[in-house]
Amino acid sequence: MACAADTDAERLGAVSSAQMFEQAVRRDPTELERSRVARIGYASCTGFFLENTSGTTFVASALHCFYWDAENWCATNGWLRVGDGFTDGASDEDGDGRDDAYGYGEDDPNDGWCSRIIAAEPTLDIVVFEADLPHPAEGDSTFRLAAYEPKVQTRAVLTGFPSDDDRDSKITTSENCWLLSGVNRYPLQYGAPGSHIIDANIKHNCSAFPGNSGGPFSIEGTRDAIGVVVAAASEPKVSASNDLMYAATSSPTSAFVALHRAALEEAGIVLSASQDPVTLPAPAARAPVPAPPSAPPTAPSPRPTPAEPSAAPTVEASAGCSAVGGRDVTNGEAAMALLALVAFLRRRVTRASR
Predict the structure, then answer these.
(1) Pick from 283, 183, 301, 223: which is nearest to 60 by CA?
(2) Domain count across the chain
């Protein structure tokens, strides 16, 4: 039995060099990652398979991949292929009224065709359609559409067909990246000036280029697709991991589900209701915040010492006695002295009146 390390190295393949963000890593996908996506139609975009309970093949992608008219694409072309494989080719060689897109015929087991549109939302650039293509309806080869808003810094992964010179439309997984924002609810324009505007978006630092459009933006280690890739760099520009100015953009599946839940549930498409606990990237070390300048501390003013209460005169009480004039007298003596004083004052008043 081969060592696990050797098996992993062989399966993952070589890491690519050209990145959109300095911390991001791009590599060849695992077989499981490869089985979850398809190359789609006109613009060589990406689509991804959705888990469902109806035993049918459903695919999600970006509406702009079909020139904003998925109904017409589904009726006149509608080609998609599991995994990779791409060559320019002929049109309607088998006479069925559809293009044999890029030279692939209906006999190829990896090829399929759009059969009907389930839901399309121009204000979010997302479409979900049913495909005539044998593919598991549930399990690890499918994604679940997230009906919740993901948390900032949630680690993410995306798989698609980036057309930059380094990968040249080869199926590629981008990882070691995370959300730089939650769901932003403001109009965002991309493409030619005045051309395309979406009402909500998620900013992230996963490397994405033309060809990734329509691909799954999923939480690392899960099958929850939290977004659909809709805008990416047009050339390899390496940005800092926290550079919101040049961040890649995905359209949130939560907003799409909110608008089209009835149609999705009627089709049996499985929705993920809440985000499981996930590992977030370690926060960058921060310098300690200096304390704001302030006046040097001063010693608190001493509290005033309350004055000692005056000592109450001490009276050594003797039974039947009072302190008068500094000597002890009996109550009888005091009464006698008072009567004598009253008599004296009366005599003085009588004399004065004569």
Answers:
(1) 223
(2) 1
